[in-house]
Amino acid sequence: MEITNVTEYDAIAKQKLPKMVYDYYASGAEDQWTLQENRNAFSRILFRPRILIDVNKIDMATTVLGFKISMPIMVAPTAMQKMAHPDGEYATARAASAAGTIMTLSSWATSSVEEVASTGPGIRFFQLYVYKNRKVVEQLVRRAEKAGFKAIALTVDTPRLGRRESDIKNRFTLPSNLTLKNFEGLDLGKMDEANDSGLASYVAGQIDRTLSWKDVQWLQTITNLPILVKGVLTGEDARIAIQAGAAGIIVSNHGARQLDYVPATISALEEVVKATQGRVPVFLDGGVRRGTDVFKALALGASGIFIGRPVVFALAAEGEAGVRKVLQMLRDEFELTMALSGCRSLSEITRNHIVTEWDTPRHLPKL
Question: Of these residues, 85, 254, 353, 363, which one is catalytic?
C-alpha cells in the first residue's frame, strides 16, 4: 500500500513493533486528553486564503538561530530510537541532513553525540536533561559542543516523569541490547527493571527536581551554545525565559506525556508569541501531522515547528527512507498550502490567513 500521508506510518509501526515499544512512543499521560487535543486543536483553525496571487515560485527556506534550513520543519528530540529500528538516530540524522533541516538529538538517545556527528554534515541541536550530578551535565554539554552541535534544547517540563499508564502496565524498560549511549561510560546508561515504569524510576533517581531558572543562567556559564527553553506554555514563563538569557523558546507539552489537561501547543502558541514581543524566536512542538498544521503554526507567529512521533513511526516502518519520506511529504503539503493560501514566502504568511475559535469579529481585518 502506498503511503500518502504521515499519519499512515502509525498503524504500520504498531504492527511492527513490540507492544512495550509502540506504547512507549505512542502514549500520553493519564487520560491522554492533551494527546488528543494536540491534534484536535489544529482542526478548529480555518484558513482565509487569498486568491489570484502569482504562486509560481514558492520559497520555504528560513534561518533558525542564524542557520539556514530548507523549510521550517525540524526533527524534535525523541528518545531511544534504536527501539524503533536498528539504525536508530543514525538514520534520523541522515534523513534530516538530506532534507536540509535540523535534527535534535535526545539526551536519552541510543546513539551518542559522537556517533550521530559521524554520520556526516548537518545542523544538529542537543536536547538536555539536567542530572543531579552536574559534572555529568557539564561533560555532556562539552561533548555535544565538541561534536559540532549548534544549540542546546533544555527540557524544562520534567522535574518528574509524567504518569504514562501503558508504561506502568508494560513495566517499560530499555531492551537489554541497548543503552543510553551518552551515559554509557558513567554507569548511567542502563535502566533497571522496576515494578512500574523503569523510565519513571530512572528519572526519579537521576533527574534534578530542584531545576530552576538560575540553572538556565548556570548553563550559560558552561557553554557558549545558544539555549532554547523547551516546555514553555505561558506568557509569564516566556518573559522569564528571555530575562534568563534564552535564545529561543519551544512551546511544548512534551508530546502530551507530562501534565495532562494542559492546552494543545497550537492553542498556547499565540500567548507565548505575544509575550516575547519578537525578542526571540518561538517554535512549536506537538501534534503536527500535516503541511496545513505547519502553516497554521507560522500564521500564529511560530518561526518553525518540530515533529516527534511521525519520525519514530516512519523509522520503525521503513528506516531512514521512512524518515526522509515523512519530511518530504510534510514539505510538499506545506508548499501546496502556501500556494493555495496565496503566500510565496514565509514572510507572507500572516495572522490574517487564518481564523481561530478564539477570534472575535474585531480580530478579523477591516474590510
Answer: 254
Q: How many CB atoms lie under 10 A from the CB of residue 261?
A: 12
Distance from C-alpha of 24 to C-alpha of 322, rounded to nearest angstrom: 20
The domains located in the chain, with CATH, are 6-356 (3.20.20.70)
Residue 24 annotated in ligand binding = yes
106 is in an annotated binding site: yes
Helix (H, G, I), strand (E, B) or coil at 169: helix
15 among annotated binding-site residues = no
List of the chain residues with pLDDT < 70: 187, 189-190, 193-195, 361-367
Going through the chain in order, the beta strands assigned E by DSSP cover 46-47, 62-64, 67-69, 73-75, 103-105, 124-128, 151-155, 227-232, 248-251, 282-285, 304-307, 354-355
Active-site residue flag, 363: no
The cell numbers describing 214, all together, are 538560575
Q: Residues 274, 275, 278, 279: what is their CA dihedral angle, to the nearest 10 degrees?
A: 180
Strand partners, 104: 125
Convert the pLDDT of each residue in 75-92 to its tens digit. 999 999 999 999 999 999
Q: Is 235 annotated as a binding residue?
A: no
Q: What is the DSSP letter of 184?
A: G
At 182, the amino acid letter reads N
